[in-house]
Amino acid sequence: MTDLVIRTLTASDAHLFDEHPDPLGAREGHARTRFRPEWKRVALRDGEVVARGAWWGGPDDSEPININWFDVAEGEEEAGAELLRSAPWRVELEINLPGDWRDAPALKAAAEARFSAARAAGYELLVERFLYRWTPDRGLPERPGRLTFSAEPDDEVFLDALRRIHSVTLDAHALRDIEEGGIDKAAQEELDFFHWCPSPREWWQVAHTPEGDLAGIHIPAHNPSGPTVGFIGVVPEQRGHGYAYDLLAECTNVLVEQGAEFVTGATDRGNFPMAANFTKAGFPVVKERINFQVKTSA
Hints:
Elements: E1 4-8, H1 26-29, E2 40-45, E3 48-56, E4 66-72, H2 77-85, E5 92-98, H3 105-120, E6 123-134, E7 148-151, H4 155-166, H5 172-196, E8 205-208, E9 214-223, E10 226-234, H6 243-257, E11 263-268, H7 272-280, E12 285-294
Parallel strand pairs: 4-5
Antiparallel strand pairs: 1-2, 2-3, 3-4, 5-12, 6-11, 6-12, 7-8, 8-9, 9-10
Helix pairs in contact: 2-3, 4-5
């Protein structure tokens, strides 16, 4: 087998990235994503692309925040691993898969090749997630009318709510952030992400019960792929009433009122209550996302 060549692309040779099969349909999923050529890398053997990765970040980010496109040719897992190992950035890896990938042998083999390459490069599984997409033909989820929603300009109100919500969270990313830096740091990072999103701060809402108690918060947002349910959270003392659905319904309606022609969302596979709420609100699963993180030393 001939030697492997790893190349970081430029505007002049960015076309090399497209010279690789796309069995998992990544191109369609990234139709709205804008990648920088210099954050794309390929592995070549005999001039043929056998692995590729696209690192991604926002327009103002100086470094990528994740890898969200990673492909490996059959039998070239080590080439994919070397592509990841040799990169100057060690950031989270997202592998987006068709919703039926577990039941289709060819898709499952392609997915597992990517998983093997990631593990060989020093990554470990963080979480498996469902990706949802609501479209108008599903009908708008009806607002139950049990809560009162309002804008809240004070970030401290959201920060306090996030601390309370994260104290009983099921979200794997939040649990990791709490383990690494505590609830205060995890809540602040969540808030910083919402500010990073290009959607207006004025969209954020708090929800109160008829008695005037805080029930939770929701963040209608836009990410680089379009309108999305940024965050849904019920404070611990208000759980058990099904308020997460009320928040999700409101969030979806707000986004549509702001012109959204579709709305995406996501939740961890293990978060059964939130998954049920997405289904109830008319959000079908369209893809799955497998998140890998750089393996922490024991």
